[in-house]
Each structure stands twice: as structure tokens, then as C-alpha cells.
Amino acid sequence: MAVVDPRNPVRRAGQYAASGLLLCLLQGCQMFGLFEDPPPPDPYRTLQIEAALDVNPDLYGRPSPVVLTIYQLSDAKAFLAADSASLMDAPPSNPAWLKHDSFQLRPGEHLTRRFVPEPGVRLFGAVAQYRDLDNAQWRTVEVFQAQTPEALQFDLERARVSIRLIPFQGEPSSVQQ
Questions:
Q1: Is 58 helix (H, G, I), strand (E, B) or coil?
Q2: How far is CA 74 from CA 29, 35, 107, 124, 134, in A?
């Protein structure tokens, strides 16, 4: 009977060749990115603002420009309790109001912006400076989760402002940051 010698040079050469081939295959997978970490998610979110053709009517019923102020909020209590004058005229003084941006829109105007949510943002609030505040829904709040790829749509209607989340549809073509 023949005894197989584990120190056989041919067998060892085959083991070395198989190990070398396996290392080359793993290195090739790394070259093509199969074992790389996925890229971090895009921190930017899309903000779309649309003013209706009949937005903010004057005394004669003609549409006129409106100023929309968008707030990034960590808590909505103080925002919902504040009166219109303090929200529209004074800068945010509450620590729950993380950031705000104002936009003036003409009737029928559409804006698209990209933004990075502030750390700790949980809600978005909007205040529209309508001419007739007594008969308008000039303030609204919407829950926002920064880790989801949803966009925010702000609609300025005749006498009502609203926020809605829209599913991510890819990169907008002409976007300002």
C-alpha cells in the first residue's frame, strides 16, 4: 500500500496555487466594489413651493404676491401657540425653531430648492402672509423624518397654505441650493 505523504511537494504546490487564486478572486471583487460599504445617503432634501394662480387676492379679487416663511422645528407647541404678528415680523426666538427661510412668490410661480435638514428637525411649519388673515389658513405644520428620501411640497392656494410629503422621484433638473 502506498502511503500519501502530506508534505508532498506537488500537493503543497497545488494548495499554494489554490490559495493564491482565491486571494486574486477576492482582490478582484474588491476592485469592482462588491465588498465596499454603500455610499452615505444624500443629506439634501427637495423643497417644492407652488403658488396658485389666484393666490392672496386683494380687495378687488386680483391675485397678488405672497411671502411664505418655512420653519424647521423640533417641537410645534410654541409655533402653534404664537400669534401671526410674532411669527411674521419677529425673528424666531424659541429654541425649538431651528431655522427659517422666507420666499416671496408671485401668482402661478413654482420654486424648487435643495436643503439640508437641521439636526433635530422633526417638523416643518409654514406661515403665509395673506392679506386677509382672518379668513385664511395662514399656518400649518407637518411631521418630517430626515432619514427618508421624501420631498416637501408647499402649496399656496387662494387663502390656504398646506404641506405634503411626496415620494422621491429622482434628481430635479433645475434646482437651486
A1: coil
A2: 44, 38, 31, 9, 27
Give how far Cα 142 sits from Cα of 43, 51, 83, 165, Å: 19, 18, 18, 8
**Cβ-Cβ contacts under 8 Å for 98 (sequence gap 6 or more):** 71, 72, 73, 74, 118, 120, 121
| CATH architecture observed for domain 45-166 | Sandwich (2.60)
Rounded to two decimals, the pTM is 0.72
Question: Domain residue spans in the chain?
Answer: 8-38, 45-166
Q: How many residues does the chain have?
A: 177
pLDDT, one tens digit per residue, over 116-168 is: 888 888 999 999 999 998 999 999 999 987 667 678 999 999 999 999 988 76
